[in-house]
Design goal:
The protein is an alpha/beta fold. The protein contains 9 helices and 12 strands. The model has no long low-confidence stretch (mean pLDDT 94).
Length: 263
């Protein structure tokens, strides 16, 4: 099986010390896919406190930029795209209610690739929510997706693979609901998706370990989703607990794009 950690909301307002304190103990062995917001806006609902009156490019935080470049070179992290402004147009998540999404994906991806001199191949939607337009914007740029848990919202697509893949996924969801995530990569023809397991201070660790065991039995992909910035001491203990649990079972520790590109 493969094991992957995705962390959301790294942006201009992120302090390197927060990432270091949450992941520093293990990310040289267990890499973390950092889903980054390229241009956090003043009204962003990412888990940070915005203080500037205009959207701030992630690279303007020089300390964060050099820290992430160092961690990239060490192989501890991968950079993924997490929206553009991470704002709430019309009170909805950016890739549900927003406009100009294709441009935002294109510009956000190019920005992150240029700043960090790396390839960005994965998109994590803010609040793991996407409208049809959002999916088209993401897949139009050739990116793959990490989702939350459910079958909706779901765009209809004409690609022949779409029906078979979605039917298979829907049957799985009806059977297991929130208990388990679909254990493997879903190939929709236009793009690929994996599902993730949210971990915070309130996570039921019995559920989390059972979900891990289910994926281990199916030789699948276990993706854990965290927000370092909002993770209190209790949440951090739970993170260390599931990482130790995984280590003892010797999965292959990978980044999100390695899941899609090594199959
Ligand atoms: Zn987010």
């Amino acid at each position: 099986m493969k094991f992957c950690i995705r962390d959301d909301d790294t942006c201009y307002y992120t302090e390197p010390a927060v990432l270091e304190s949450v992941f520093g103990d293990f990310w040289d062995e267990v890499p973390v896919t950092l889903a980054c917001v390229p241009m956090a806006s003043p009204d962003t609902d990412a888990m940070v406190e915005a203080t500037e009156p205009v959207p701030m490019p992630i690279e303007e935080n020089a300390a964060l930029r050099s820290y992430l470049i160092e961690r990239l070179e060490a192989g501890s992290i991968e950079i993924a795209l997490h929206g553009y402004h991470h704002d709430t147009p019309g009170g909805r998540p950016e890739f549900v209610g927003g406009t100009g999404l294709a441009r935002k994906v294109r510009d956000g991806r190019r920005q992150l690739e240029a700043v960090f001199d790396t390839d960005v191949r994965v998109f994590v939607p803010p609040h793991v929510r996407l409208a049809n337009r959002g999916v088209r914007a993401v897949t139009g740029d050739g990116l793959d997706l990490v989702r939350g848990y459910g079958p909706r919202p779901r765009e209809l697509q004409a690609h022949p693979k779409w029906w078979t893949t979605y039917t298979r996924f829907l049957a799985f969801h009806v059977r297991y609901r929130r208990r388990f995530r679909y254990p493997r990569v879903l190939d929709y023809g236009t793009h690929r998706e994996i599902y993730s397991h949210r971990l915070n201070a309130r996570t039921d660790m019995t559920w989390c370990k059972r979900a891990f065991d289910y994926i281990a039995r199916n030789d699948g992909v276990f993706c854990l989703s965290v927000h370092a910035n909002g993770l209190n001491e209790r949440g951090q203990r739970k993170l260390r607990e599931i990482v130790s649990y995984a280590r003892a079972r010797e999965p292959e520790f990978v980044t999100a794009s390695e899941i899609f590109y090594s199959d």
